[in-house]
Amino acid sequence: MGYSNFKKGYKVWSLDQKKFTFSRDVSFHENVFPYKTKSFLESDLDNTKYLNNSNFFDLYESSSDINPNDDEKVETDSATVTQQHSGSSESTPQVDTQQSFSSNDMASNQQVDEPEPNSVRVESSNSNEESNLPEGTHTTTRKSTRSVSVPKKFGDYVVEGKVKFGYERVVNYTNLSPDNMCFASNVNKIREPSSYQEAVKDSNWVNAMNEELSALHESNTWSIVDLPKGRKPIGCKWVFKVKYKSNGEVERYKARLVAKGFNQREGIDFDETFSPVVKMVTIRCIISLSVQNDWPLYQLDVNNAFLYGNLKEEVYMSIPDGLNDCHHDKVCKLNKSLYGLKQAPRMWNEKLVNVLLKIGFYQSKCDYSMFIKSNNNVFIVMLVYVDDIILTGNNKQEIDNVKKLLQSEFKIKDLRLLKFFLGIEVIKTKEGICLSQRKYCMDLLNEFGMSGCKPASCPIEPNYVVTNLCRKEEANFVNVNEYQRLVGKLIYLSHTRPDIAYAVHFLSQYMHKPTSAHSQIAFKLLRYLKGAPGAGLGKVH
Q: In what order do the strands lie in the sheet containing 2-3?
């Protein structure tokens, strides 16, 4: 009948017993159709109270099919038979307790059959002994005291067709334009590999890695040398990302070689590391300004931006995956900065600032990653977040000139109108612009196993916070790293979700010693996000 929402296993209809059972181990006979014969249809099927007027495609089972004491019943009956054997071992042959279970039962792990004749004889023998006991004496069955834990392989999972509160009840694409609807619906389809061994199985990612290696060789990023004595090379890894077009189609598969900068030693491999990035409040202000003045928003991407930075220190890196067969016992001496190095963002930022100052921009004192060009009634604003650039202004011709000047210095990819920036979906409407983090929110729910949870109506309950979080002696502390990771993701989500700002602010006060009460509030907030994952900020004309 499918998966059970209340037990780890399949819901099975027993043809012999005419009732539902549950089992983790089943065999599928795809060529056997028992109800296809006339005898089943006329006799068994009509006389079955469970199958009449039932819908096998319900999202969840009714409570009448569930017996929460099934597991407890199995242990109790097994213990009873064992005690009966020990009491009658002198007069009765030894009986295997496994005989009390039917060998043909499709759900032997969950359902207990009627005792076999051997078991009946044991019970009758014990009943005669019990009849000789004095009045008022009662025999009790010992219950098992062992702790039962579910194996890890039977951990929580979500089957979309059997989830009571699926995404289809809360995610709505009907109000989006056709282009935005295609983008929002396609952006989750392709899974990005997490390792080199997984990526080499797909030719698309293999081609992407070859393109990245070719670009690194063309820019003379490293030289293959022997490792000097006393030096230790840092590692490297591949990072994979799918780039989408504005209509949701796959633009390209992007593979990037990243150095493991956490192995660098200060004073030897690096010195200064700070590099500014644009603030989120600045992004929202400029987008609001463009909506009010009806300015277009353009997006640019710099290919291999960190390779343009000149490296001042001597840094040695191990041979990346894909080149190991060519160079044994060799290392890469980096001539230019590489993604992952601690000083790489700073080197790239210095290079970009010098170019922008040369073509007429000046750096804002409010945000050092915002550059402004203003002269002769021309006003252009550029926002820089590492290698992602937003460009807007009141003169389209001057914006095109700025693009050409940047393309003469760097390899720039023009992504045209702004659609997706730093995990934020920018949706253009007739009334203005909407900022949403739908994909980010759904990924967050999937990561913490809340994709099938029941939505909540509010992010936090103030009364619960006041009454239940003041007793430190009763607090049960939870995993600090998991809690901090969740709250950090919620903080980034609050940039476009001001409705969760207070709840996130409260949770962030307990980052060092979170308790189970704080964890419950955090998961209550995730349930609230499940109710409207596509909600966001609206900028109206």
A: 2-3, 10-14, 19-23
Cα–Cα dist 402/397, whole Å: 9
Q: 3-state SS string over 34-64?
A: HHHCHHHHHHHCCCCCCCCCCCCCCCCCCHH
Q: Retrieve residue 437's tokens.
A: 């983090």
Q: Taking the alpha carbons of 483, 488, 492, 498 in that order, is the dihedral positive or negative?
A: positive
Q: Which residue has the tokens 């928003």?
A: 297
Q: Are 227 and 316 in contact (CB under 8 A)?
A: yes
Q: What is the model's pTM? A: 0.58
- Per cent of the chain over pLDDT 70 is 68
H/E segment holding residue 20: strand 19-23
Residue 386's closest CA among 440, 306, 307? 306
Distance between CA 504 and CA 348 in Å, rounded? 33
Where do runs of H (alpha helix) occur along 112-250?
117-131, 178-186, 196-199, 203-218
Tens-digit pLDDT profile for residues 174-183: 666 666 666 6
Between CA 212 and CA 200 the distance in angstroms is: 14
